[in-house]
Design brief:
single chain, mainly alpha, 75% helix, rod-shaped
Length: 175
Amino acid sequence: MADGEVAAGFQLFSALTAIATPLVAICVAWVAYQQWRTAQQRIVLDLFRDRLNVFDKVSRAVRLIERDWQQKGGEPLSLLLTARDEARFLFGSEVSTYILNLILAAEDLEHACKKLDENDESEDWEKLKDYSIRYFVTEELARVFEPYMDMRQRLHGADAIPVESYYDKKRSEFR
């Protein structure tokens, strides 16, 4: 082998090395980007699952109360209390407010039913019972939760839906 052939081989090897290094770096960057995207998608999926779990609890409580409003406390109230605690960091304030309003309405409904059973005539318990039952509407539930259930990561308060306070509505109807 002549010195010229060795020099040419060395130059070819140097050129291939110079090309391979950036090519490997590009491949590593692409793999890292794909891993990052997968991690982001996993976070969104986990967030969606957690939100769906809260929605399911609230939905079950609303359906139980719609179906049998005379049910005293028990499962619906327990579901709502658990959902309230879980929703605090998963949704914007409007969902937490909505769940709190459902809890207050459920407590009022239970109290009104108890007073009606006792034949207490000190207040219009029938009116309070009817008002509380009206608050458990499945369509309202879907309207409040819908912005958070579309599998895209949302910031708290994004596309916020105003939820009127249960007590503000109650106060305006009873006064």
